[in-house]
Amino acid sequence: MNEKINLTRITEPDEARLLHIEDSLAVLDELNAAPDGLYGDLGSGGGFPGVPLGIMSGRQTVLVDSVKKKMTAVGEMLNAIGLSGQISTCDKRIEELTCEKPNTFAVLTARALSSLDSLVELASPLLQDHGQLICLKAQVDEDEIQRAQDIEELTGMKLIKKRDFYLSDQETFRTVIVFEKDHEPSIALPRRVGKAQKQPLKHK
Length: 204
Description:
The chain has about 200 residues and is an alpha/beta fold. It has one domain (about 1-200): Vaccinia Virus protein VP39 (Rossmann fold, 3-Layer(aba) Sandwich), CATH 3.40.50. It contains ten helices and seven strands. Helix 7 packs parallel to helix 8. It is globular and about 50 Å long.
């Protein structure tokens, strides 16, 4: 199935355990510390980190990815292993999902999906008050973090945690960055599909 749909480029078992399972579960503590409620994984692709985190946290989970064939395949696998009652899939763009389910999620994850400023904009209208966005990054510089902080007032989001770590191979470096929705955005969100990435918000 992976050869036809390209769910993941990682096919070696040891590499998959490290870069899919371990990498996903590295933020389980952050997920468990977030408010109780619905969990969404943005840009879930082949189901990572959402499936491992959903299983280990026990939360109701929604995997969100606009590539329909990936979500269909992941949904079939979840059904086959008896997890479709807990973990569901959504093949809509994030902005489209927001229009249907605003202020619904207690916590969101995003792994290597987009820049931090785009992610806080996209996550804010999906999150409940005090809901959290957990961003998993392989590389992030201070300029990217600052751009996200520059639009905190606009998006209603606030940086509350940054943690650097290595995976068990002691070579693979990761950063987890957590934002919390601490007030309502001062602008109307979501903007049109794609604007968060193509025309990032600027601090006024």
